[in-house]
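Standup notes
- DV: blocked on the single-chain target, sequence here:
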Amino acid sequence: VFPTFNPLNKVYMNSIANGNTTIGAGNNGTDFSYISATIGASSGKYYWEAKVTDLAEIDQVGVALASANFSNIGTTHGLQGTQYGGKGVQFSNGYKVGDGSGSAYMGGFSANEVLCIALDLDNNSGGADQTYANSTPAYTNLTAGETYIPAHAMRASGGNTGSTSYNFGNGYFGTTAISSEGTNASGIGKFEYDVPTGFTALST
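- DV (later): unblocked, structure below
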């Protein structure tokens, strides 16, 4: 069983579709929309993918503490808000966001491009990229022993309410199958890109 997004732990995320793997229709204005997934972990190395189909003003892909309660918040901070333990990467400009701020990390993304996420809870680091050759972690300061969970934050502007489809291992982005399966040494899950050595799908 792979993660899906949890409609009980969200705020302002007005569209959840395709078996709770496609999210969108974020809040217009200053407040962010938030949602987290159904499965987290405190150890191990995990990989998943996110494909943006409609860029919102801001889309942030990453993780938050499993203890974060998104259902009753009203905030403008996004995943960089320190109260959620969130850390991630922003689609529009490739900035890494977390620890109360954002800074340059990688290039920005366009519609229909895939972001690859690697979460290393054995070494308390995480990163995102489209290739892992010569890549460096976005963060190396995840808190040991804490349970982290996939999370998404977004803020819309005008008609760009945003839409992103996640592949946690079932081999689909929304209703579209991956075009060519990458290598995966664990054999758990089907992904568009090669799964980094030692990583596997987050699953039960």
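- Follow-up: The first strand starts at residue 5 and ends at 11.
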